[in-house]
């Protein structure tokens, strides 16, 4: 999953800039490169599938928090981990 | 208004519908895949049909079995960590389309990968509160009947 980790690293590199200018927008990264920003998830996902097929690619909402899962579990995206990333 | 039953009609081995609802939980059948093979405007035709999905009001987001997601070759769009009563472990988020025929509802969204099959769970998908946002859930524990109904406000 090296490509996705490259995407996450690229996101982390641009995180401050994205949070300043695109807070709560959706961004797509592929092969370690920023591709584009979208107002909603479906637009981001449609573009990603059309251009990059089965991926992997990173689709992330700028500034989003963890997702609550069943049984009291939560999903924390890599950028939100206390350890500072992957 | 469209609706879909999520309870049970009859049980086996002496179990009634109410017993099954306690043991298994509200369940619907869904189709899932990445791309529909039907034409635009037609009923979506996704790769995997009649997948058992648990309706879980205790979950915020939606989940898919990791093995099913990998078999369907769903794109991985995020990597992170799940933490909870079982400790912590790495997890992926997949992108998929999910179709519910009785509601004529097509979703195109993210699903967190969880080990449902490996954990010997009956369901392969979990739909949480984000799914229920547009519906009314009627839960009759005494009779074992559950219904998901379109909401006028949804």
Give the SSE map.
The complex is a heterodimer of chains A (86) and B (154).
Chain A: H1 2-21, E1 26-30, E2 33-38, H2 41-52, E3 58-61, E4 67-68, E5 74-77
Antiparallel strand pairs in A: 1-2, 1-3, 4-5
Chain B: E1 3-5, H1 17-24, E2 27-33, E3 48-55, E4 63-65, H2 66-71, E5 76-84, E6 87-100, E7 105-114, E8 125-127, H3 129-132, E9 135-140, E10 145-150
Parallel strand pairs in B: 3-8, 4-7
Antiparallel strand pairs in B: 1-10, 2-3, 2-6, 4-8, 5-6, 6-7, 9-10
What does this structure look like?
The complex is a heterodimer of chains A (86) and B (154). Chain A has one domain (2-80). Chain A contains 2 helices and 5 strands, in the order αββαβββ. Chain A is 37% helix and 24% strand. The longest helix of chain A has 20 residues, at 2-21. Chain B has a 6-stranded mixed barrel. Chain B has a single domain (3-150), classed as Cathepsin D, subunit A, domain 1 (Beta Barrel), CATH 2.40.70.10. Chain B has helices at residues 17-24, 66-71, 129-132, and strands at residues 3-5, 27-33, 48-55, 63-65, 76-84, 87-100, 105-114, 125-127, 135-140, 145-150. Chain B is 12% helix and 45% strand. The longest helix of chain B is centred in the N-terminal third of the chain and has 8 residues, at 17-24. Chain B is globular and about 40 Å long. Chain B is built from 3 helices and 10 strands.
